[in-house]
Specification:
The structure holds two protein chains of two kinds. By secondary structure, chain A is an alpha/beta fold. In chain A, about 35% of the residues are buried. Chain A folds into four domains: about 50 residues; about 180 residues, SGNH hydrolase (Rossmann fold), CATH 3.40.50.1110; about 45 residues, no CATH class; about 140 residues, Tetratricopeptide repeat domain (Serine Threonine Protein Phosphatase 5, Tetratricopeptide repeat), CATH 1.25.40. In chain A, helix 10 packs antiparallel against helix 11 and helix 15 packs antiparallel against helix 16. Chain A is built from 21 helices and five strands. Chain B has two domains: about 180 residues, no CATH class; about 280 residues, no CATH class. Chain B is built from 17 helices and no strands. The radius of gyration of chain B is 23 Å and the shape is globular. The chains are: A alpha/beta, B mainly alpha. Chains A and B meet through helix 2 and helix 8 of A and helix 1 and helix 17 of B.
Chain lengths: ~450, ~475
């Protein structure tokens, strides 16, 4: 009824439309004003924090996760923690977080900050606000997506969508930004149920290890083979397979060894043992056919496995088949391109470049509760001449996975760039980063 | 289902779409089903209580109107009262009275063995029992004709917008609106939306944020007097916004469907004396108590002493209505004493010069008296009341932290104060709605921003649900 009435009254319709636009404009102004106020307050805090010339100066750059929280923010707490843990040196942490900024905006400011503050170290936590496909979007959409009102609406929509979830709007936005826009299908954390291991099997494992030690590989092989045929706890089974691999390798039973690799790659996509061993086999040009078959069969099941493609490419290169090597290596590059957030990667590289040029140490922090892979993947192609350290925050926020505990770490009232870490969450973040910083001096 | 939940948003969207499509007859049936679904969402077992109450009063109403025998009429009315109060007494007050009796006897060294009941308080029971009671009362007094349409009567009892926390509607007002077709106009729709929005703002932004100031103070044992003061100021506005917010949402929801529900709060903190306050605070309850308790007791048409007695009874029971605890009884007594004192003072000639003068002073003084009353209301027990009063009087200790707390309180309450001053000056509760479109748009945007940015969106129950 209302709709019919409205459609027959063109005037009313335009008036309503005008008011809606005005309404959104007001909200945009409020959001920006709010951001501006918090920046002014932050600048005041920074000035009162400047302690003098003989201090180790750290600048924290990032988005709202860094910027907001006042004395409870993660940089403020980092200042306190560092000065408490290391009394020999004086630390001064400057918060230069920009609410709602994407990595382009953040990195754009870095050189200016370096000139102004002459810091010894820069700590960054950024990328949450990046859009992956910036180049493909049409300019109108980019403009709209830069509006804070748009983000707010997105957040509200997500909150409605996940209304049963305990997460705040900001947390939902962040997860979406990092997981969906990066195009990375984050593996669901496999829940490994651990079974109690029969003491008899433990004894067998130790016996097998002893056999390896005394180089009785035949006996070791028998023991580990009988172990892997049992219904065992998965972690225990992995260990048994690894040792079986070692005893087979020592005897040169390569065909059987390759079966062990197969098991390991099926269990764990990034099995370090299998990867290293296969590399060695390839460079020694041993069991070329079997290795090739194994890797191809793995790719048949899942063609997009970056490490297997890379391994196969590298092996072909070792075996002298450059055409095939290029085929698989280009596939790897393609997978990486798709998986990586273009904007984040570009800006992280820019940041690393700036830091290298200015000889400043960089600490790149991953957001709490997000997998390290998402960050590591950005630096895949970089050499060792860059001086930066990545900081993982998955383990220390593990407890927050529990919905009961969640609220202790993350504030729930959040939207429009309110920080999502609580005092406690920021403290844990600060403590972790502080430890990494102090370790880096050793 | 709470008004500030996504479940309710989905629920109401469906109900309202159906409401607009269906014709009058089916509208009422659909609303009845929706109301039962809404109520059953808490606990479907509660439905039996509301249906029981509905049947009792439906029958009593019909029989009272049918018979001419005054004695029989009275008997039927008493049955209705007894049934409803028994329900209320059993579910709400049994444990309270049992506990109090045990304590009383233990004072004399007698240990009384009474079984406590393991019942939960059915949501809104105090509201709908009073609402159905008013129906039989009015029929008894000959002011209302009973309805024969059972389902319509059932809808009157269970109408979901005001079912769980009022306003306590009178049959005289609500029943005719159920029996006759209603019209939904665009203006009513706008007004209703505004009321819902304003109510949500009051609940989510103001009340939610004030709760964060109030709760820590009342949970913790040791506090400075100044902190207690700020917490009490904050609670005064928290409970106002919580309850007024709910009433506004209820009225708004009614309005978009063409129903007019009564105004439940009319700027209570602009009252300058207790009698004025009770004309502004929880109007549907205070007029109920006046019409069905105070006046039948004799009201003020009797000797002074009996009037005071009537006031005392009304306010004590009014206090107890709010909750089964001695703190509520004390709060009722306190309000009763204020009313009696005001009555006494205004009957003395010397104080005549006070009339119509010193508005601000009177407002200030009376507001603080009300705030003091909220201490009884909010405290967990009388020991806490005494501790807090002691700290206010003997260790006020104003320091920086308290000032920050007070600042936060002022910031949260500021939008409400601005609107209320406007409402008072213009003598129009819908003053914001009737304002210039530019200001209105600005206000809508600001409220949206504050709700989304700073609102407390956790599913917290409305305070008054427990009554």
């Amino acid at each position: 009824m209302c709709l019919k009435y409205m459609f027959t009254n063109y005037k009313i319709l335009t008036r309503v439309a005008f008011r809606i636009v005005l309404f959104l404009l007001f909200i945009e102004i409020f959001l920006r004003f709010d951001g501006w106020i918090s920046l002014v307050l932050q600048e005041n805090r920074n000035k009162s924090n400047l302690k003098g010339l003989n201090t180790y100066r750290i600048i924290c750059i990032g988005d709202s996760n860094t910027a907001l929280g006042g004395d409870e923010s993660f940089p403020s707490q980092l200042d306190v923690v560092l000065n408490k843990l290391d009394t020999k040196r004086k630390y001064e942490v400057i918060n230069k977080g920009l609410p709602a900024a994407d990595s382009t905006e953040i990195v754009d400011n870095v050189e200016e900050l370096i000139n102004e503050y002459k810091p010894n170290m820069i700590v960054s936590m950024m990328g949450a606000n990046d859009r992956n496909d910036l180049t493909k979007e049409d300019p109108v959409f980019i403009l709209i997506s830069r509006l804070k009102v748009f983000k707010l609406a997105q957040g509200v929509f997500l909150r409605l969508l996940y209304f049963k979830s305990d997460k705040g709007i900001n947390q939902l936005l962040l997860e979406r930004a990092l997981v969906q826009k990066n195009n990375i299908t984050v593996k669901k954390q496999e829940v490994i149920e651990r079974k109690a291991v029969d003491p008899q099997y433990v004894k067998m494992l130790f016996l097998g290890l002893k056999m390896l030690e005394v180089k009785d590989y035949v006996k070791a092989e028998v023991i580990f083979k009988s172990l892997v045929s049992q219904d065992l706890d998965i972690i225990f089974l992995d260990r048994a397979y690894k040792e079986l691999g070692n005893s087979l390798k020592a005897q040169g039973k390569i065909n059987e060894l390759i079966n062990v690799f197969k098991y390991q790659f099926e269990r764990d996509e990034f099995s370090v043992f299998a990867t290293d061993e296969i590399r060695e086999l390839c460079s020694n040009k041993k069991a070329v056919y079997e290795t090739e078959q194994l890797l191809l069969s793995l790719l048949e099941i899942k063609p997009d496995r970056e490490n297997i493609n890379g391994l196969l490419g590298a092996c072909y290169a070792e075996w002298g088949d450059d055409v095939k090597a290029e085929k698989y290596l280009s596939k790897v590059r393609e997978i990486r391109r798709n998986a990586v957030n273009v904007a984040s990667k570009k800006n992280y590289l820019r940041l690393a470049e700036i830091l290298k040029k200015n000889k400043i140490k960089g600490i790149f922090v991953q957001y709490p509760m997000l997998s390290m892979e998402n960050l590591e993947i950005l630096f895949n192609e970089m050499d060792d001449s860059y001086d930066f350290i990545l900081v993982d925050n998955l383990e220390n926020f593990k407890e927050a996975l529990n919905p009961e505990k969640y609220k202790e770490y993350f504030s729930d009232r959040s939207l429009n760039d309110r920080g999502h870490c609580t005092l406690k969450g920021n403290f844990i973040l600060a403590e972790n980063v502080a430890k990494v910083i102090l370790n880096s001096f050793k | 289902m709470l008004f500030n939940s996504v479940e309710f948003l989905i629920f109401f969207t469906i109900v309202y779409s159906l409401y607009l499509i269906l014709n009058f007859k089916w509208q009422n049936r659909m609303l009845l089903v929706a109301s039962y679904v809404f109520y059953g969402f808490w606990d479907w077992r509660f439905l039996s209580l509301i249906i029981f109450s509905t049947i009792v009063d439906y029958c009593c109403g019909l029989y009272i109107a049918e018979t001419d025998d005054v004695k029989k009429k009275k008997k039927l009315l008493l049955i209705s009262i007894f049934m409803n109060l028994a329900l209320l007494g059993f579910f709400k007050y049994f444990n309270f009275f049992a506990g109090s009796l045990i304590k009383l006897f233990s004072l004399f060294g007698v240990s009384l063995k009474l079984q406590y009941l393991n019942v939960i308080l059915p949501v809104g029971i105090s509201f709908y029992t009073f609402q159905t009671l008013s129906y039989t009362f009015d029929i008894y007094k000959g002011q209302l004709k009973p309805t024969k349409k059972f389902f319509d009567f059932a809808l009157f009892v269970a109408f979901f917008p005001q079912l769980v926390a009022g306003p306590i509607e009178r049959a005289k007002c609500l029943l005719p609106q159920i029996l006759e077709p209603r019209s939904v106009t665009l203006n009513k729709f706008y007004e209703g939306c505004f009321l819902v929005f304003w109510g949500l703002f009051e609940k989510i932004f103001i009340s939610g944020n004030l709760a964060k100031i109030v709760d820590p103070v009342f949970v913790s044992g040791e506090h400075k007097g100044s902190e207690v003061m700020v917490a009490l100021y904050a609670f005064a506005f928290q409970i106002l916004c919580d309850f007024d917010g709910y009433s506004n949402i209820a009225r708004g929801l009614g309005k978009v469907m063409g129903f007019e529900l009564m105004i439940n709060f009319n700027l209570p903190y602009f009252a300058t004396n207790p009698s004025d306050f009770w004309k502004r605070w929880h109007i549907s309850l205070s007029t109920w108590l006046k019409d069905y308790l105070y006046i039948p007791l004799g009201g003020n048409k009797v000797s002074n002493l009996i009037t005071y007695r009537n006031l005392a009874i009304t306010m004590l029971l009014g206090g107890l209505w709010h909750g089964a605890a001695w703190t509520f009884v004390v709060w009722g007594a306190y309000q009763g004493i204020l009313l009696m004192a005001h009555r006494k003072v205004s009957s003395i000639r010397i104080f005549d010069f006070l009339k119509n003068r010193f508005f601000i002073v009177k407002l200030f003084v009376f507001f603080h008296l009300v705030v003091l009353g909220w201490l009884f209301f909010r405290a967990q027990n009388m020991a806490q009341v005494m501790r807090m009063l002691h700290s206010i009087v003997f260790s006020l200790d104003l320091d920086g932290n308290t000032l920050v707390l007070f600042q936060r309180f002022l910031l949260v309450v500021l939008p409400l104060l601005i609107v209320q001053i406007g409402q008072y000056k213009k003598n129009d509760l819908m003053f914001l709605f009737h304002g210039h479109w530019f200001i209105k748009t600005f206000a809508y945007a600001l409220m949206t921003y504050l709700i989304l940015g700073y609102g407390v969106l956790t599913a917290e129950e409305f305070i008054y649900f427990q009554f």
